[in-house]
Amino acid sequence: MVFLAMSILASSLIFVIFKLFGKFKVNTLYAIITNYMVACSVGLLFYAGEISVADVPKKPWFWGTLALGMLFILVFNLMAATAQRVGVSVASVATKMSLAIPVLFGVFMYNEVLGPLKIVGILLALAAVYFASIKEKSMAIEKVSLLLPLLVFLGSGIIDTSLKYIQEVHIKEEEYPIFSASVFGSAGMVGILFILVRSFKSPFKFNFRDILGGIALGVPNYFSIYFLLKALENDSLNSASVFTINNVAIVMFSTLLGILLFKEQVSTKNWGGIALAVISIILVAFF
To answer: What pLDDT is recorded for position 139?
Structure first.
């Protein structure tokens, strides 16, 4: 539970840092790409074994890291497009409700058993994510835009499911840092290629704020994945429980941080979502 709590804390810090980007006029795209390279560097620093670039492609999980790196960038851009065209709350709901995909994967692939109370807890978790994220003025969705949140839902779910599968089948515990570093390094390289291609149309301008923003984002981003991998090893919680608690607690904690740090307005439905989140966590974690 300690590793899960640390992953939730790191993921919630990412929310705070993103909010600060607007205040300090940080270019989000450039900071995101910098963050991936910083997260890669942190993983390399925490890897206790000898690092040989030539040996990494021989690892059974290497091709998975390349695929995950591309997914990270793709889903990020889909989230940005969803937030801009449909609404921030819709993007948030689509991302966090994707917990249903790894939960179902754990049940069917690994025969994980969900008791009646845990099933109720997971259903309450989905409702909690919706009500904690919803904003009254942002839920009017045009039919033509429904594809974007659907793609965000699928992409986020595939990322979580892939992490579970690779952790279960291919990674040794001592390789978590180098695996995480490889995923973030892959995402960073894809991001660099993207802005290089885009620079032919419009030249990009890095500034010191973007680099500082990327550093601030990269450290908690790395640990959010590292601690999640450690939490998935927990013998007392199956992967369905881990992903449910992780996603719901992030929404709950991020909402509370938004209230405390940024004086965000919270509706009755949001408070209802937070209450449902607490109940769902108790049901999933302790029953």
So the answer is: 47
What b-and-e string marks burial along 72-94, b requiring 16 or more CB atoms within 10 Å of the CB?
bbebbebbebbbeebbebbbbbb
Residue 87, pLDDT score: 60
- Using CA atoms, how far apart are residues 217 and 60, in angstroms rounded to an integer? 29
pLDDT tens-digit series, residues 150-188: 888 899 889 988 888 887 777 888 888 888 889 999 999
Quick check: 216 and 17 in contact, CB under 8 A?
yes
Give the number of other Cβ atoms within 10 Å of residue 190's Cβ.
18
Q: What is the 3-state secondary structure (H, E, C) of 64-103?
A: HHHHHHHHHHHHHHHHHHHHHHCCHHHHHHHHHHHHHHHH
Determine the residue type at 114.
L
> 3-class SS at 11?
helix
Cβ within 8 Å of residue 141, ≥6 positions away: 86, 87, 90, 149
**pLDDT given for residue 86 in this prediction:** 66
Query: Which residues of the chain are modeled with pLDDT < 50?
Result: 138-139, 141, 144
**Rounded Cα gap, residues 126 and 276, in angstroms:** 9
* Nearest C-alpha neighbor of 161 from the set 93, 110, 226: 110
Which residues are within 8 A (CB) of 45 and not within 5 positions of it... i.e. 6 or more apart?
none
Our CA dihedral for 110, 114, 119, 125, rounded to 10 degrees, sits at: -60
Q: Rounded distance, CA 62 to CA 141, Å?
A: 39
Dihedral (Cα; 89, 92, 94, 96), 10-degree rounding:
-140
Q: Which residues of 250-280 are buried (b: 16+ CB within 10 A; e: fewer)?
A: bbbbbbebbeeeeeeeeeeebeebbebbebb
Please state, in angstroms and rounded to a whole number, the distance separating the CA atoms of residues 277 and 265: 18
